[in-house]
Amino acid sequence: MPHAKFSSEKYYRDVVHGLLRLHELEVEGKSDSVEADEVRDQMEYPWHLLSDQEKERITGLSVDLYSITNPPKLKPPTSQSQNKLFEAFIAHQYGQWDKSLELLRMGGEHVDAAICAYVRGSVWMEAGDDATASVFFKQAADLDSDNPNYTVMFLQSLRTESSEKALQIAMNFLANHDDVPPEVVVKAAEIRYASTLKMQEVESRIVLEELLQILQPVALALESDDSTLDSIFLMALSLIATCQDHLGNVAEALKAYNRGIAASPHNDALLVARGILLYGTDAGSILDFEEAIKLRTPLVWPYFYLAHNLLISNRLEDCIRMSELALTMSASDLVRASLFEWIAIAKCELGFPVAQIRQAFEEAMLLAPDNERIRSNFSTFDSWSATQKKAIVWEKVTEETIQAFGHSEFKPVLALAA
Fold first, then answer.
1. 226: Cβ–Cβ under 8 A, 6 or more apart, which residues?
2. How far apart (Å, rounded) are the C-alpha atoms in residues 107 and 84?
3. Radius of gyration for the alpha carbons in the chain, expressed in angstroms and rounded
4. What one-character-per-residue DSSP string does 286-351 give?
5. pLDDT tens digits, residue range 70-87?
6. What are the pLDDT digits (tens) for 85-124?
7. What is the rounded distance in angstroms from the CA atom of residue 339 to the CA atom of residue 262?
8. How far apart, in whole angstroms, are the C-alpha atoms of residue 148 and residue 188?
9. For a designed S-S bond to 285, which of 201, 202, 215, 279 qualifies (C-beta 3.0 to 4.6 A apart)?
């Protein structure tokens, strides 16, 4: 069961963001400026709307932010401080965010400041506040530039909060990629790749080619390194495959996925990515999806594609079962709408009661009211249900269409940092 996140209410976020802005102004030497006074004034009203727990949390955050600009002198560890840190770790594991932060605060003077900042960032990120997390991850990266995971997590949290800032920093890393750790190069490349999705094709092709020139030597070095950077190697290959695919180099994309799967045969994300790439052109894609399901992938895509394959293969009962399994997983509205549509078609072909078929179509229309194919099939069903005499000719989604849909929606996600 997922742990509860910190509040997303506007008044709460306004206070937190105000405090973060005051921290920025303090770093800039402007804590006594007119802007700082305006920020404090804007925080006054929402502060009174906070619960006691939220006020206590934000007061603690203020202390932690102050420790960045006015770092305490590191003290030798004691048995008591070690116990506090261990308790903070346990509280973190159980999603007791406030308790973890408080315990860390109590023992923080006895632990390396970079490690302390990293743990604080991890707690805030898992509690759903990437803006605050990015401040502490940046502190960790500034204090210990030899640990690339700190920089990776800083980029990841900043990307959620401010994609433009993250892109700017990522591009700087890429411009100096020869002097940057591979973990940071790959994370920066991932951020740069994401920016191409909003570009015109001519511009995006240039960027994708540039990314390939950077990533291919990185992947080659990591492959021959035989070090502990396996996840970075796999992410580099995944990005190479994605870039090649978007450039229309399907054979090169397949080579990259094959290299990744050869190195990590039980990597469900890579299996799903290769399956989508090959769907409709190679029967091996079905084997990739089936293997991903055996590995208990949390991704909906193998279930989605197998449900479609079962529908067009006329294995209708299996299609219904696979679609229902997919509907228990996290998925976009359009994916869920398609699954309900396929259930409706399969049930109609199998002679299920009209009410059940209609209910499935209605669920699909609620999720994707503007989808013309679903609307057309629902209308066809409506006309047929009045007499139930003629066979129905459905507007079925083709393998090519469904492959292109998943190709544009699915993004393999591989962890880059512990």
1. none
2. 6
3. 26
4. HHHHHHHHHTT-S-SHHHHHHHHHHHHTT-HHHHHHHHHHHTTS---HHHHHHHHHHHHHHHHHTT
5. 888 888 888 888 888 889
6. 889 989 999 999 999 999 999 887 888 899 999 999 999 9
7. 32
8. 12
9. 279
